[in-house]
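Progress report, Aim 2. The chain analyzed during this reporting quarter is listed below.
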Amino acid sequence: MELRAKVSAALKQAMKDKAADRLSTLRLINAAIKDKDIAARAEGNDDGVGDGEVRAILGKMSKQRIESARAYEEGGRLDLADAERAEIKVIEEFLPQQLSEKEAEAAVDAAVAEVGAQSIRDMGKVMGLLKSKYTGQMDFGTVGPKVKARLS
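Predicted structure tokens for the chain:
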């Protein structure tokens, strides 16, 4: 089942269960997907966005909430931080499982070999390949320095 269908099914179930917090998060996800669909249609892609783009949307939403939760904690608003973490849990249900440290390093090594990267100049190619294969499965903010170190 594609991600869009999973989100819709979860939305319907949340309505039946009368789970208000979960329902609002699922509606936010649905709205973000629809916004990207509209943008894609404006660019001539009548099918809207695919699963890869939906994963990217979900990854971005999760990252935003992690940053918000951190900011709320620093500001002493633990109630808001907890609400953000609850939203993160709902969003991450639809994301693939995060790669472990060893799996991420193996993916970096495989990408470097596949691209044939020799120097730091090839970092963009390696990162592009990793993003196309592992969107939502790894944090590219932490992977970037690993790729840089591997190519230096």
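The first helix runs from residue 3 to 17. The chain has two domains: 3-92, 101-151. These observations will guide the mutagenesis work planned for the next reporting period.
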